[in-house]
C-alpha cells in the first residue's frame, strides 16, 4: 500500500521524513493526538520524540534534535494540536535548536510558522524549511464533476472526531493485505503527516472544495482503489460544507459510515442531536448520486474504544442485523472487519 498522496499528483507536496515528534510542554494527552496518530500509523517514519517539559509520551525513544538527525530524521513535527492551534513563546527556542541541528519544522497548527519572527529569521539563516500542513495548493481547480477512472471509498461520519481517519487507514491497510492496489488519501492535518502528503480540506476556499477532492484523488488504473479520509459530517451545523464538497469531488463508489456508540449530540454543539446511522446513509446516497449515480454504502465502522470485547461483538451483531450491513470496529479487526472489507471490494450487483 502507498500512503503517499503525492504519488500521482506532483502538486501535493511531499514532507521531510522521517520525523522527530515534538511534544512541547504538553500535559494533556488529548492535545498530543497528532503525535499518537503518527506513532500508531507511521511508526516506521518516526525516529523518536522530544519535548521541553511535556508529561505525556508516545513511548518512542527520547532523542535530542542532534541525535535524531544522526539517526536520519529530516523533519521535526509539532505533534500537538492544542486549543486554538497556537505555538507558545516557550517553544521557540526548542524549534530554533531543531533547525540548527538540520531539521525542517512541520506544523499542523493554525498559527503559521513563518509569522513568528524568530522562526522566520532562523529558517532564513539556516536555510531550513518551515512547513505548514494547513496550507492547500495554490492552483486548485473548480470541480469538473467528470467521472474519473479507478475506484474510490470515502469514510463519512455522524459527527467529527470519531474515527474516519483510523477507519480509512485500516481499510487501506486491509485492501493492501489482500493484494489490492490502494492509496490512502489524506484530507486533514494528521492524515497528511501520516501519508506524507495530501490536501487539508478544512483550509480550502469553499468554491474549490470539490475541486480539491478531485485533485486529491486523480484518475487511476481501473482496479486501483483510493481510500479517502472523510471530514466532518453532512449533518454538522458548522462543517457540513466541507463534508459535501469532499463527497461531490471524491465521487465515491463506496462509503463507510463512522459512528461512536453512546454519543448523542454533536461534539461542541449540545443543541444538535446526532443523526441516526440510517439518516447518514440516506443523505449520503442522495447527495452522492449527483456525481456518482452508482454510489453504495458498504458498511458501518463503530468506535468501540469505551466497550469491552464482548459488548463490542454483541453490538456489531445487533447493528448488522438491524441495518443489513457489515458492522465492525477496524481497530479490533476480526471476522466482523473482514466482512466489511469484503463488502467494500465486492462489485455491485448488476441488472
TrEMBL record:
D-glutamate N-acetyltransferase-like C-terminal domain span: 142-335
Domain D-glutamate N-acetyltransferase-like N-terminal as annotated: residue spans: 57-136
PANTHER family referenced in this protein's UniProt entry, alphabetically: DUF1611 DOMAIN-CONTAINING PROTEIN (PTHR40690:SF1), GLL3100 PROTEIN (PTHR40690)
Name of the molecule in the record: DUF1611 domain-containing protein
Species, as recorded: Rhodanobacter ginsengisoli
Amino acid at each position: 500500500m502507498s500512503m503517499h498522496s503525492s504519488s500521482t499528483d506532483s502538486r501535493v507536496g511531499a514532507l521531510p521524513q522521517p520525523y522527530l515528534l515534538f511534544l512541547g510542554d504538553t500535559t494533556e494527552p488529548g492535545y498530543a493526538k497528532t503525535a499518537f496518530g503518527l506513532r500508531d500509523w507511521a511508526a516506521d517514519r518516526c525516529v523518536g520524540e522530544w519535548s521541553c517539559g511535556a508529561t505525556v509520551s508516545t513511548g518512542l525513544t527520547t532523542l535530542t534534535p542532534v541525535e535524531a538527525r544522526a539517526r536520519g530524521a529530516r523533519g521535526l513535527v509539532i505533534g500537538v494540536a492544542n486549543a486554538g492551534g497556537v505555538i507558545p513563546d516557550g517553544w521557540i527556542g526548542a524549534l530554533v535548536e531543531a533547525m540548527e541541528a538540520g531539521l525542517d519544522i512541520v506544523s499542523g497548527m493554525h498559527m503559521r510558522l513563518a509569522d513568528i519572527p524568530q522562526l522566520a529569521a532562523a529558517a532564513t539563516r539556516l536555510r531550513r524549511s518551515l512547513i505548514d500542513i494547513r496550507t492547500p495548493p495554490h492552483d486548485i481547480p473548480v470541480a469538473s464533476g467528470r467521472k474519473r477512472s479507478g475506484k474510490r471509498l470515502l469514510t463519512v461520519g455522524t459527527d467529527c472526531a470519531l474515527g474516519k481517519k483510523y477507519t480509512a487507514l485500516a481499510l487501506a491497510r486491509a485492501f493492501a493485505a489482500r493484494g489490492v492496489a490502494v492509496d490512502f488519501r489524506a484530507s486533514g492535518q494528521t492524515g497528511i503527516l501520516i501519508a506524507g502528503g495530501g490536501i487539508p480540506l478544512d483550509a480550502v476556499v469553499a468554491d474549490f472544495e470539490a475541486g480539491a477532492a478531485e485533485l486529491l484523488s486523480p484518475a487511476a488504473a481501473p482496479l486501483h482503489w483510493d481510500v479517502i479520509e472523510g471530514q466532518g459530517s453532512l449533518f454538522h451545523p458548522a462543517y457540513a460544507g466541507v463534508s459535501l464538497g469532499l463527497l461531490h469531488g471524491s465521487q465515491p463508489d463506496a462509503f463507510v459510515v463512522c459512528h461512536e456508540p453512546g454519543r448523542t449530540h454533536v461534539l461542541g454543539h449540545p443543541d444538535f442531536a446526532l443523526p441516526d446511522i440510517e439518516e447518514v446513509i440516506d443523505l449520503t446516497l442522495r447527495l452522492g448520486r449527483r456525481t456518482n449515480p452508482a454510489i453504495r454504502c458498504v458498511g458501518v465502522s463503530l468506535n468501540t474504544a469505551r466497550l469491552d470485547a464482548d459488548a463490542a461483538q454483541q453490538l456489531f451483531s445487533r447493528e448488522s442485523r438491524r441495518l443489513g450491513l457489515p458492522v465492525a470496529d477496524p481497530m479490533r479487526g476480526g471476522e466482523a472487519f473482514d466482512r466489511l472489507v469484503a463488502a467494500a471490494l465486492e462489485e455491485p450487483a448488476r441488472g
